[in-house]
Amino acid sequence: MLTHTHFDHAGNAAWLAGEYGAEVIVQEAESDSLARGDTPIPSGTYPLTKGIVSIGRKIAPAFKYEPCTADHIFTDTFDLNRFGINGYVLHTPGHSPGGATTIIDNSVAIAGDSVIGTIPGSPFPPFADDVDELLRSWEKLLGTGCHTFLPGHGKPISREQLIAEYDKRSLKHTPGNFNSPVSL
């Protein structure tokens, strides 16, 4: 399962599929990027990362990876019970258009870069294509009932940390909205 197709998350997908027969799951919005081995660099969300992005886009060919054809392409959710896993994959765009989070037992979310654990005191990612969409995805993640969010980079994020950051960044939040799990 790919949380998204940026080079640092999808760069070995073709190798894993070829070497171990791993089935590759990707969200529909990024399936073509995966097949090309080339995903656009996301926008920066802080002044420093905006500068990094402008440099990165100038050397974008350095971030290409081996193309990979997905075995499973999903739109909104993908049920993992067929693999013996009590969970599902949820489309969580914002960091990238095809962002995806794996939800296990409505308890743990493997969130890729939808949250980040490397910036002290903030799970807000330094890169995101659409911040408003990212906050809507955080609403979806909090709606799962998960208490632990595992980022693609850094330390785990608690539910309380994610709610606090969401509250700080969103004017639309009404307390109490995050209590019922998403249903398939």
**CATH A-level architecture of the largest domain:** 4-Layer Sandwich
Structural class computed from helices and strand pairing: alpha/beta
| Poorly predicted parts | 179-183
Number of helices: 6
Estimate the helix proportion, in percent: 25-40%
Beta fraction: 15-25%
Total beta strands? 8
- Give the assembly state of these chains: single chain
| Total of domains | 2
**How would a textbook summarize the main sheet?**
6 strands, mixed
- What does the radius of gyration come to? 16 Å
Strand ordering within the main sheet: 3-4-5-6-7-8
Distance between the termini: 18 Å
Please identify which CATH superfamily of the largest domain we are dealing with: Ribonuclease Z/Hydroxyacylglutathione hydrolase-like
Order of helices and strands: HHEHHEEEEEHEEH
CATH class assignment of the largest domain: Alpha Beta
Q: What is the CATH third-level topology name of the largest domain? A: Metallo-beta-lactamase, Chain A
Quote the average pLDDT.
93
What is the global morphology? globular
Task: Report on this structure.
The chain has 184 residues and is α/β, with parallel strands linked by helices. It folds into 2 domains: 7-63, no CATH class; 74-169, Metallo-beta-lactamase, Chain A, CATH 3.60.15.10. Helices cover 29% and strands 16% of the residues. The chain is built from 6 helices and 8 strands, in the order H-H-E-H-H-E-E-E-E-E-H-E-E-H. The strands form 2 sheets. The chain has a 6-stranded mixed sheet with strand order 3-4-5-6-7-8. The chain has a two-stranded parallel sheet with strand order 1-2. Strand 3 (77-79) and strand 4 (87-91) form a beta hairpin. Helix 5 (131-143) runs antiparallel to helix 6. It is globular. It starts with 6 loop residues before the first helix and ends in a 15-residue tail after the last helix.
